[in-house]
Amino acid sequence: MKLIFNALAVTLFLPYHVTFDKVLVSLKMGDSVTLHTGVETNQQDVIKWYFNNTRIAQISGDLSKICTDEPCPGRFRNRLKLDHQTGSLTIMNITNTDSGEYELKIISNNDSKKIFSVSVTDVPAAELYEMKERESVTLDSGVIKHPNDVLTWYFNEILITEISGDQSKICSDVQCKQRFRDRLKLDHQTGSLTIMNTRTTDSGEYELKIISSRFSITTVKRFSVSVTAVPDSGLSSAAVAGIVIVVLLVAAAAAAGVVYRRRRRHTAVPHE
Ligand SMILES: *[C@@H]1O[C@H](CO)[C@@H](O)[C@H](O)[C@H]1NC(C)=O
Ligand SMILES: *[C@@H]1O[C@H](CO)[C@@H](O)[C@H](O)[C@H]1NC(C)=O
Ligand SMILES: *[C@@H]1O[C@H](CO)[C@@H](O)[C@H](O)[C@H]1NC(C)=O
């Protein structure tokens, strides 16, 4: 359930300066993940990606191939992206059949090899949070933040918050301020986002991007929020108080009218 990054803190120095790393990545279905190479490619380098020993992508000079051979196209159906500058591989909208070993081979002056062992938990895609207007909701990051991680929240692609080290920015963007004013709260341990006093206009897609530079991984998690209007509560408590006062005034006026009429009748009596 939780997103856990683990590194086997072993970097073995093999002959010929071949470096070897293994990173364990645990994800939920629907997450996206970028596996970073940590290099800028140059014309001489060749970068190759394998999934369970099948080549899925390669960059060599200006040439890049992605998912050309079966079963890659069938399995990843346009869900792979390759960064041409760095050779980093992005797997979008991950599913449980994507679990396995992603091996990176960099063939350059110094050859290096890195394995990202990815396991995808069998939890349904994109978490859906449903609530009623004016309730609060906490979008659970599912992680324990490391000081080096950078966590960024977006709402429909508007930047809303960023936590980086012990610094955090909440809603410094104008569009964010217009929408959320002071209704956002961040948990600094986990990066979870709380939206208070929700409105129907808070409904939509929220994204949490976690850049974990320690393990050369960027994860994007999606959260769907649906806030439903509460029919009779279109009235604020101030409006309700206003209505009560009006009703009381009307009642008072009516009562006064009755008294007045009565009095008139009483005073009229002697004249009859
Ligand atoms: C992710 O994949 C699921 C099932 O494979 C699909 O129903 C859904 O539309 C996809 N979502 C995105 C954002 O691509
Ligand atoms: C890839 O390898 C992992 C671990 O060996 C295995 O659990 C998984 O089923 C394999 N996936 C595919 C699609 O071959
Ligand atoms: C290759 O790696 C070794 C050991 O990590 C380093 O000392 C050397 O500078 C590297 N050479 C190049 C060309 O990157």
From TrEMBL:
Where's the Immunoglobulin domain? 22-121, 126-228
Keywords, alphabetical: Membrane, Signal, Transmembrane, Transmembrane helix
Q: Which species is listed as the source?
A: Carassius auratus
Q: What is this protein called?
A: Uncharacterized protein LOC113039446
Q: Transmembrane region positions? A: 238-260
Q: Which residues form the signal peptide?
A: 1-20
Q: Could you tell me which InterPro entries the record lists for this protein?
A: Ig-like_dom_sf, Ig-like_fold, Ig_sub, Ig_V-set
